[in-house]
């Protein structure tokens, strides 16, 4: 399994790769991970995730300093490193999680050796533009080049997947590929602990990278626009390059005493954050699925999310929460207020709806589907969503 981002990185793609790898090991498979080293130390060793051991081949990497944590393997050595690892491991299948560096190298060398290749896309070039320092006038051209590069890598794969139907359609439009499978990242809902106790406070939660495309500034402004009588508190879990700017904004809005920036937290602390929250907010406009939203639903939280990309797959307007017009502070504030002022009966109905809607995203079904793809079996994409779209 090849990944350009993997633990200890904290993001949806890294979390999915980690959970898939550990789930496959639990079923008796031998799994090797090829990923950039998290620091100066590089080489091959055993790493443990969710109680399961995988062999990690950590490649020499450098930090990409415009980004707050991203490291990348050397592009000019990736084919040589991929050939060496593939010849040592002799895998039955190569599954790459990103086409950028590691996936490109592994797919090229696996194709030469006739090894079955599966490719999964979690990436939107648009999300990285702010870290590339490319002038705005050139950005559309750069995005076009990025998608052409993606096509070259994914064209080597016998099967291509992405987490949702909308993300699959987006990938097909962007690359000209056909037959992309929509396979949920999956989640183990039993790991999360919903609270069914009566609410004693109004606490909004956001979990994710603290970066521009997440539009956390919109959420902060919406919190400031809510009636003071609600005494709404906001917890922001995650780190990123926008942290200081958002802390400054919260002070300017006069809500700094009600906003807590928790940074990176442990898995146990994260589950506690979900349990004590009243509602989950996801203002991002660039989610190919959103594992954080899935975790919130597994925790029986109503969700208020932007009506953008794949979020309508998870948030069914009027059922388990609401969709709002992307970037619209007033609409987000109104939808949050609707949830926070709901009657106890209505609030519990939304909580139960989140648990019901997350059930089809069971991680074990995801693992079984990938096992079928690895074997070359015909696969029918699992039905995990019914899209609800609020008219703009």
From TrEMBL:
Translocase keyword on record: no
SUPFAM superfamilies hit by this protein: UDP-Glycosyltransferase/glycogen phosphorylase
Top-level taxon in the UniProt lineage: Bacteria
GO molecular function, one term: glycosyltransferase activity
Keywords linked to the UniProt accession: Glycosyltransferase, Transferase
Domain Glycosyltransferase subfamily 4-like N-terminal: residue ranges: 10-191
Domain Glycosyl transferase family: residue ranges: 198-356
Segments crossing the lipid bilayer: none
Example GO biological process: carbohydrate derivative biosynthetic process
Name used for this protein in its record: D-inositol 3-phosphate glycosyltransferase
Source taxonomy: Bacteria, Bacillati, Actinomycetota, Actinomycetes, Micrococcales
């Amino acid at each position: 399994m090849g990944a350009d981002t993997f633990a200890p990185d904290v993001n949806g793609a890294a979390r999915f790769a980690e959970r898939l790898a550990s789930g496959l090991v639990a079923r008796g498979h031998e799994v090797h991970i090829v990923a950039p080293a998290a620091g100066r130390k590089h080489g091959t060793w055993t790493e443990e995730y969710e109680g399961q051991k995988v062999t990690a081949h950590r490649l020499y990497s450098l930090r990409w300093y415009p980004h707050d944590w991203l490291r990348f393997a050397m592009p000019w050595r990736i084919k040589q490193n991929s050939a060496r690892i593939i010849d040592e491991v002799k895998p039955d299948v190569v599954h790459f999680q990103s086409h950028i560096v590691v996936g490109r190298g592994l797919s090229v060398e696996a194709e030469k050796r006739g090894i079955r290749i599966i490719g999964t896309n979690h990436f939107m070039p648009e999300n990285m533009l702010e870290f590339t320092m490319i002038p705005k006038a050139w950005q559309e051209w750069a995005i076009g080049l990025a998608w052409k590069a993606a096509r070259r890598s994914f064209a080597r794969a016998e099967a291509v997947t992405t987490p949702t139907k909308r993300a699959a359609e987006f990938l097909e439009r962007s690359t000209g590929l056909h037959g992309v499978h929509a396979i949920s990242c999956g989640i183990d809902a039993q790991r999360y602990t919903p609270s069914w106790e009566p609410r004693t406070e109004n606490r909004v939660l956001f979990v994710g990278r603290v970066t521009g495309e997440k539009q956390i500034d919109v959420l902060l402004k919406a919190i400031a626009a809510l009636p003071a009588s609600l005494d709404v508190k906001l917890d922001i879990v995650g780190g990123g390059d926008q942290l200081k700017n958002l802390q400054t904004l919260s002070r300017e809005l006069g809500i700094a005493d009600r906003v807590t920036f928790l940074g990176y937290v442990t898995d146990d602390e994260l589950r506690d954050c979900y349990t004590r929250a009243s509602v989950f907010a996801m203002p991002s406009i660039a989610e190919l699925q959103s594992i954080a939203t899935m975790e919130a639903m597994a925790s029986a939280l109503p969700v208020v999310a932007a009506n953008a990309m794949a979020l309508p797959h998870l948030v069914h307007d009027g059922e388990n929460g609401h969709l709002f017009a992307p970037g619209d502070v007033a609409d987000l504030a109104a939808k949050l207020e609707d949830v926070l002022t709901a009657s106890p009966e209505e609030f519990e109905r939304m909580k139960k709806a989140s648990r019901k809607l997350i059930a089809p995203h069971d991680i074990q079904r995801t693992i079984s589907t990938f096992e079928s793809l690895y074997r070359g079996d015909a696969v029918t994409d699992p039905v995990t969503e019914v899209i609800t779209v609020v008219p703009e």
